[in-house]
Amino acid sequence: MTRIITRTCSPADAEALTRHGLHPVLARLYAARGIRIPAEIETGLARLVPPEQLKGCADAAALLADAIAQKRRMLVVADYDCDGATACAVAVRGLRMFGAQVDYLVPNRFEYGYGLTPEIVALAAQRPGGPPELLITVDNGIASVEGVAAANALGIDVLVTDHHLPGETLPAARAIVNPNQPGCPFPSKSLAGVGVMFYVLLALRATLRERQVFSEARPEPRLDGLLDLVALGTVADVVKLDSNNRVLVAQGLQRMRRGRLQPGIAALFRAAGREARSACGFDLGFALGPRLNAAGRLSDMSLGIECLITDDVGRAWDLAQQLDAMNRERRDIEAGMQSQALAELNALDPAQTMATATITLFNPTWHQGVIGIVAGRLKEKFHRPSFTFALADDSGATVKGSGRSIAGFHLRDALDLISKREPLLIGKFGGHAMAAGLTLATADLARFTAAFEAVGREWLTAETLARTIETDGTLEDAYFTPQFVEMLEEQVWGQGFPAPVFSGEFEVLSQALVKERHLKLQLGRARQRFNAIWFNHTEPLPQHTTVAYRLSADSWNGVARVQLIVEHALA
Questions:
Q1: Is the pLDDT of residue 515 over 90?
Q2: Spatial contact of 90 and 201, defined as CB atoms under 8 Å apart
Q3: Quick one: fold of 469-569?
Q4: Which has more pLDDT, 108 or 291?
Q5: What pLDDT shows up at residue 350?
Q6: In the predicted model, is pLDDT for residue 110 greater than 60?
Q7: Selecting from 3.40.720.10, 3.40.50.300, 3.90.1640.30, 3.40.50.970, what CATH number does the domain 46-325 have?
C-alpha cells in the first residue's frame, strides 16, 4: 500500500518569505523544507562556514605548505566513485595551483577493495621515481588504521581527508580532516569528500598567505574555479544538502551555466546530451555522475579522473565518450541483472514476497560493480531493505554484498547486530544508514538471509513498510508553464532538500505504452490537458486517479511544453 501525503508548511513562514519578494510557490516550497528567513536560502560564498571550524584543517594546511616548500613528492589516494574522483581532481588541480609536486593513485576496487590498505601503500611505494613522501587520502582513510600504520613504517606521512563515520580507533595520520571525527565542531556534518578537500585548499591558501608566499611573480590562486567539481561530487554522492552544501552546489551550477567549467565536465555534458548553460542538480546526479561512476563500477576510476584533470579539450571529449560507452554497458548489465532478480521474486507467491521484511538475492553470474544499483532498484520497487550478492572472485568461495535501505532501518547498525549475534558469519562490513556492503563465505548466504530477515522483523513495523510519497500538494493551473519549470530548476534541490513533487486528482484521458516499458498519459483537470509519462511502469490506470508528479520542460520542434513526470498514481 502506498500513501500520498502533503508536507506540512508553516503559513506564517511562507508569508514572511513572500513579503521579502520570493515567488509565492517558492516561498511555500522553502517553508515546507524548514526555511524561515530569506538569509537561509542565500548562496553567496560569504555564507560558507569558515575553514577554521573544521577540525584538523589548520594542521593539514601547515603540513601541505611545508611539503610544497620542501618540494616533497605527494600522492593522492582516491576512491572509485564520483565523490572520490572529483575530490581527487580538486586535490590534484588545487595543489598544482600552489606549485605542489603531486600525482594520484586510484585502487581498482576488484583487486584492492576500499580505502588506504597496506597493499595500496605497498603499491604506492613502488611508483616510478620513488615512493611518495606524503600520501593524501580523499573520500577515504578514516578507517584505514592498518594502511596508515604501513605508511608510517615506510617513513611516508599521511594526511587523511574523509567524511565517512570513524570507527573506535582513528588512524595515526599526521593530520585528519573529517567533519564527523570526534570533537569536530564543524556544523555541516554532511560535507562530501570533495567538499572536505576543497576546504583543505581554502585553509592551505590562508596559511600560504600568512607566510607571505604570494607575490606579483607568484599570484594567489583562485579556488572558485574548482566549484564545478565540488558541485558534481556533492550531488552525485547524495549527501544531505544542508545550507553549506547548497552554497557549494549553487556556486558550482552558476559557473557551469556561465560556461566557466572544466573541459572534462563540459565534455560530460556533451556526451550526456545535456546543456551546461541550463545545468541543474538533476543533470549532475542522473547524467554526469553515473557516467563517472561507470568507470569505477566496471573498470577503474583512472579514466574518470583523467577526464576531470585534463586541460586538453580533445582528450576530455575522447575520455567522456569512453565513459559514456561504459555507462551504456553498465545500464545493459544492470537491466539484465534486474530482470533476473525480478523474475526470481515474481516466481514466488506475491503474498509471500510482501510477507517478508527484507530481500536478499544472489546470482553467481552477477557483476559485483553493479549489485548496489540493483539492490537500490529492488528497494524502490518493493520498499524493503535489500541486499544483492555477487561472487567476490573466481574461486567462488566468497561473495560481496551491497545493500540499500528504507527510512527507519539503519543498514550498517543491522549488520553490526548480526555480526554480534553470529560472530563468525560476516567477514567485513561497512556503510551507513541507507547503504552498506559486506563480504561472506558463499556457503553462509542462507544463514545471513535468515539473520537479516530476523532483524528486519524486529525493527520494521507495518507502518515503516508502507511506502509514503511526500508531496507539496496541489499546484495551481496557472503555473504549468515552461517559465515556472525553469524557475524551479534554477533552485538547488537534492538529498535532504527534495525537489518539488506536487499531487492532485486527474482524469485519465488516454494512456499507451512507449517502448513497452513506459506509460504515456494524457491527463485532464477542469478544462486543461496535461501530457505525462510514468517511466518503468506498464500497468494501466483507472479513469480517475490521484497523481504525484514532478514538472519537466519538454521541447518539440523548438516549442517548449510542460510534461508531468509521474512518481506514483493511486490505482
A1: no
A2: yes
A3: OB fold (Dihydrolipoamide Acetyltransferase, E2P) (2.40.50)
A4: 291
A5: 56
A6: yes
A7: 3.90.1640.30
